[in-house]
Amino acid sequence: MPSKSTTTAVRLLMPQACPRIPASAMPCIPPFTPPAGGCGAELAVDAAPRNPRRRRVPTVRIKPIPRPIGGQPGRRGSRVRRAGQDRRMYSAKTVLATTAAALLALTLASPATAVPDAPTAAPRPCDAAPTCYVDVAVAQVWVSPEQVRPVDARATTNPADVRGWLAGMSLDERRDVAGETQALHGIRVTVDRSEWHGGLRWDHVWVHGQPTPRDQAGLGAYPGWIPDRQLTSEHRRPPAGTHEERVDRPTARGFATARAALDGRGAGQVGEYSYNTSFPVEAGPLPGVVTAHSPSGGRVFFRAADLARVPSVRSGADVVAAARAFLGLPYLWSGTSGFGYDCSGLTSQVYSALGVTIPRDAEPQFDAGGGQVPAGSAAGVRITGTEDLRLGDIVAFRPATGTGTEVTHVGIYSGTRNGEPMMINSPRTGDPVREEPIGSTGRVYVGATRFLTR
């Protein structure tokens, strides 16, 4: 028995994972706040001096920690509070009773066939490792950290709020985005240097799968800057029995549980992923649902209809059909995602989703038909006259003014209408993806590249 002046340190071992306790399961139990350091931390218990006239109950002293709670990145009006604020002090008996009652309630409420949740553990950050992977739905790849504006903040978080970022920009701000390109979730990047700017660590990367003549190392990759926190160095081998599928809609919602995916409940949504985002997948625990695996080992559940395998045989008609799904989508300079494309972003991503890698930018797409093929790209065939065009050909244009021959715009040939050759293209900021006559663009047609012979 300790003396009056003695303080005893007691370790109270908590479960390693904080239980998710529905309010209905604990109507008479006060809220439980995990201790500093998360579940599994030590709780210091003071043995108060004994008083024969008053029975004291040992109280739990939970030390405040600087952990932000109460807000989510990218959400307007979110608040950041210190975890030590507004904490209530409970006795050790109360804490144990709370935990036991909650776990019992969860056990009784959970059927034996409960569908597992997606894991929520944060992946290991990139920390400028030589090879990393995109850990957000879409990572904006910037010209330089210095050119990122306050209005771009939502595009630099993890998770990235791409829709909020786009909605928060005026037309002029969209026109002035300092972007090089975009990288989809799970894409591999090579990091060649890192620096700090504006309180963030930034990595200069080469985004694989986007060939460009700027790549002198033969990586088949495109250069630019990404915040380190949007990348991870983790890359776990997918489970046996999985196969590769890609998002087959402009965007698709991923969910934390199979039931939420089947029902389409917004409350269970964990992310919105772009067209052509690739996942190793397997059959889900419910009909009509698939389980997708991320490079960091996490799971996301999708409706099976939202994903599809890359076709083993593809044609120009497939290219046109895929491009038509984006009619009406707003233009975004540097865009390569279903949230917004620039002209060559649309053409390159449609081909990529069909299993054909072509150059990222407009002029290299045209040059690939004349023998100038950057590393990692398919070779094409030069087509000159519009009468020789076939469905899916990449049609190229130069500006109508001036004498320059540089190709500055591309589209996808989609056939003829009333005798006029047509194309699907993402024209410019302020004009959405549309299908229009080749001769009505205000630009000069210079030829085309054919990447598919069927």
Structure, described:
The chain is an alpha+beta fold and 454 residues long. It folds into 4 domains: 1-110, no CATH class; 131-232, no CATH class; 243-308, SH3 Domains (SH3 type barrels); 316-450, endopeptidase fold (from Nostoc punctiforme) (Alpha-Beta Complex), CATH 3.90.1720.10. It has helices at 92-109, 162-167, 171-175, 258-263, 316-324, 343-353, 362-367; strands at residues 44-45, 60-61, 131-134, 138-142, 179-184, 188-197, 200-208, 221-227, 231-232, 243-247, 251-255, 269-274, 278-283, 289-293, 299-303, 307-308, 336-337, 340-341, 381-383, 394-399, 409-417, 420-425, 434-437, 443-450. The strands form 7 sheets. The chain has a 6-stranded antiparallel β-sheet. Strands 8-7-6-3-9 form a 5-stranded antiparallel β-sheet, with no helix packed on it. Strands 15-14-13-10-16 form a 5-stranded antiparallel β-sheet. Strand 14 and strand 15 (299-303) form a beta hairpin. The chain is globular and about 55 Å long. The N and C termini lie far apart (88 Å). Residues 1-120 have low confidence and may be disordered.
